[in-house]
Amino acid sequence: MKIYTRTGDKGTTSLIYGDRVKKYNPQVKAYGTCDEANSLIGLGMSHLKKEKEELYQEVYSIFHRIQTVLFHVGAELATPKGKKVMWEIQEKDIEILEETMDEWDQKLPTLTNFVLPGGSNAGATLHVARTVVRRAERSAVEIGEDVNPLVLAYLNRLSDFLFVGARYINQKLQEVERTLHQEEEN
Q1: What is the enclosing helix (H) or strand (E) of 22?
Q2: Which of 34, 126, 153, 177 could join 74 in a cystine, given CB atoms 3.0 to 4.6 angstroms apart?
Q3: What is the pTM of this model?
Q4: Rounded CA separation 157/87 (Å)
Q5: At 21, phi and psi to the nearest 5?
Q6: pLDDT of 138-160, one tens digit each?
Q7: Can you tell me whether residue 21 is helix, strand or coil?
């Protein structure tokens, strides 16, 4: 099977079920941004595997699940109105993010200031993924009321999760967490 089809050469692409739309269509922007975030999560995990294999093994299953669910979110966003969604986001998907966030957050220092993105390669990459998920959320909102509210909730929670995840990984890697006014405090 060839990867290229040439069907998008004139600025259109297919949604699920084959409906053709312009590549700037809000649905295309939303699911494309989910794909971008998913790729960044994968990049973060590849950095983590090189930085500390043991920590990678600890967090691998949750990030693998997130990447899978995020793929399903993209598929749901790529489904035309009125068509059957192949994989629907469930409340449990959001609960898993919340439970893991709560567990990790208890092991982190209390926030007293804004955290500047950075730290380890893995942590910094997850911070970038977090901002891309926020963009995906904004793009999904732009589609309108046809978007499953659980998709919006999942994207919102995922961004929070990636923030906590970046902090957790940076702490486990003994990276100093820089804050907004750190230079003034030192």
Answers
A1: strand 20-22
A2: 34
A3: 0.92
A4: 19
A5: -140, 165
A6: 999 999 888 999 999 999 999 99
A7: strand
